[in-house]
């Protein structure tokens, strides 16, 4: 994964908050292993280096504590929470992403089957479900979540909008919730941090553990977000169909708009997976339309040489081509201008003015893509993320997300993953691969 441009970390950025020192024996040995094998409980020695190239330094004898490293995910020998008494809440917030139901199912199954927790509530429609006006939460059991992984979306519902952390913590207190799992993106995780801070200020031993969700793959310090592989796989199918249409007509142009508010990962990966696109436009790279070195002239040249052209555009690309606006959605995220429609109109006008016969087909499969069930790879990943999140919470970790870094499950402080954004590095390997695969020029 291209994670170029991330800031340098110190160990202080990676310190994980824990609730304290209570010490219940983990039920995992008894629950999981019947024939005397012993489970590998995580210890401090398992720390995961932020920069794996530093493993050479460790081999040379530099103590791992002196190098920035993440706390490892996984089961602990002793727990903060007594599973038999622990009450758990789960909430999903923000936009849909393939795999949400897999994560919900994974949390419930791990809590019930491996830890013996017997009380799990699903809060409805995002953080709205934690307010006084929220719908009644749903009791979740392994039976009630048994088949949900075959469906896209989230069985709990989701929402955007702004909710008061004090009100949400009061709801959690009244329902005597000990652990809250938040499956959500950067906004939801900022909310999770606010809930954890409010609980701490009130002296409530509440564990708040996130599972990072972003179809755009824009959360930093994780190898890849769940659902992303499913999403770019589906997006590649859309590009392939648009390509088939385009090459079936004279001067056919296929224009596909994909999701990617600030980060063009879906567009880049789908392009590489289909290998059918001639031009990819992403938020991270400027795209002048006019002039010899602009997008319109390039499309014309592709039509001249090849007789058809396929253009992929991420929804956040080219926002500078519009008048500035302060419009925002209910969560405060900037509302994007419709770059797909602008390109459709400008390319149509440009080709019409050139006097050539052409046919442009515009497709916007974004919502259709993000609502599909997770593929096999993402399903595995969701289950394992959920297991890591449960291990972390039962051991009393709070204000963290469970993520995977260089193939290992780790605990990442929420402030770390909300402080920056993962974006395609315009000087990095991924973008270079896209330029090579499409043959598109560097526009500026
Ligand atoms: N800056 C913030 N501080 C606290 N809570 C936030 C913040 N931004 C968003 N939230 C909460 O998180 C929820 C989801 O945020 P949103 O940005 O819509 O999606 P995502 O979590 O996918 O980024 C919102 O309903 C809101 O309650
Ligand atoms: O669901 P909405 O409000 O139409 O928002 C669409 C946005 O949701 C996303 O799919 C995911 O965004 P979030 O991670 O903020 O939830 C973006 O790619 C897209 O810009």
Automatic annotation (TrEMBL):
It is found in: Cytoplasm. Belongs to the phosphofructokinase type A (PFKA) family. PPi-dependent PFK group II subfamily. Atypical ATP-dependent clade 'X' sub-subfamily. It is an enzyme of class 2 (transferase). HAMAP family: Phosphofructokinase_II_X. It catalyses: beta-D-fructose 6-phosphate + ATP = beta-D-fructose 1,6-bisphosphate + ADP + H(+). One of its GO terms (cellular component) is cytoplasm. This is ATP-dependent 6-phosphofructokinase. Keywords: ATP-binding, Cytoplasm, Glycolysis, Kinase, Magnesium, Metal-binding, Nucleotide-binding, Transferase. ATP binds at residues 95, 160-161, 185-188. It comes from Goekera deserti. One of its GO terms (biological process) is fructose 6-phosphate metabolic process. Residues 87-392 form the Phosphofructokinase domain. The active site is at 216 (proton acceptor). InterPro entries: ATP_PFK, PFKA, Phosphofructokinase_dom, PKF_sf, PyroP-dep_PFK_TP0108. Pathway: Carbohydrate degradation; glycolysis; D-glyceraldehyde 3-phosphate and glycerone phosphate from D-glucose: step 3/4. Mg(2+) binds at residue 186. Its EC number is 2.7.1.11. Gene3D superfamilies: 3.40.50.450. One of its GO terms (molecular function) is ATP binding.
């Amino acid at each position: 994964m291209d994670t170029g441009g991330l800031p340098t970390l110190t160990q202080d950025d990676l310190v994980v908050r824990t609730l304290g020192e209570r010490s219940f024996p983990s039920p995992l040995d008894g629950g999981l292993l019947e024939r005397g094998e012993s489970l590998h409980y995580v210890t401090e020695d398992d720390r995961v280096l932020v920069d794996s190239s530093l493993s050479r330094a460790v081999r040379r004898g530099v103590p791992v504590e002196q190098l920035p490293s993440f706390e490892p995910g996984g089961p602990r020998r002793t727990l903060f929470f007594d599973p038999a008494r622990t009450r758990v809440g789960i909430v999903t917030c923000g936009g849909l992403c393939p795999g949400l139901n897999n994560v919900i199912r994974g949390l419930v199954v791990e809590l019930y089957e491996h830890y013996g927790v017997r009380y799990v509530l699903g809060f409805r429609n995002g953080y709205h479900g934690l307010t006084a006006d929220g719908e009644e939460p749903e009791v979740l059991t392994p039976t009630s979540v048994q088949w949900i992984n075959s469906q896209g979306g989230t069985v709990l519902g989701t929402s955007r909008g702004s909710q008061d952390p004090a009100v949400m913590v009061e709801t959690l207190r009244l329902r005597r919730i000990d652990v809250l799992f938040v499956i959500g993106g950067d906004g939801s995780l900022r909310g999770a941090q606010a809930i954890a801070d409010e609980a701490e200020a009130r002296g409530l031993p509440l564990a708040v553990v996130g599972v990072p969700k972003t179809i755009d793959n824009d959360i930093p310090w994780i190898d890849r977000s769940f659902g992303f592989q499913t999403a770019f796989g589906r997006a590649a199918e859309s590009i392939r169909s648009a390509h088939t249409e385009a090459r079936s007509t004279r001067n056919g142009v296929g224009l596909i708009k994909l999701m990617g508010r600030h980060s063009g990962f879906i567009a880049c990966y789908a392009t590489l997976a289909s290998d059918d696109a001639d031009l990819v436009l992403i938020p991270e790279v400027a795209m002048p339309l006019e002039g010899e070195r602009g997008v319109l002239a390039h499309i014309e040249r592709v039509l001249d040489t090849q007789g058809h052209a396929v253009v992929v555009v991420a929804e956040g690309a080219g926002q500078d081509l519009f008048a500035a606006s302060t419009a925002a959605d209910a969560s405060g995220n900037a509302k994007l201008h419709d770059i797909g429609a602008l390109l459709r109109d400008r390319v149509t006008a440009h080709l019409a003015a050139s006097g050539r016969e052409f046919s442009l087909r515009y497709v916007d499969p974004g919502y259709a893509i993000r609502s599909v069930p997770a593929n096999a790879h993402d399903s595995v990943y969701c289950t394992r993320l959920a297991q890591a999140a449960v291990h972390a919470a039962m051991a009393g970790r709070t204000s963290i997300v469970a993520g995977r870094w260089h193939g290992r499950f780790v605990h990442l402080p929420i402030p770390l993953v909300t402080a920056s954004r993962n974006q395609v590095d315009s000087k990095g390997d991924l973008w270079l691969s896209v330029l090579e695969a499409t043959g598109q020029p560097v526009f500026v």
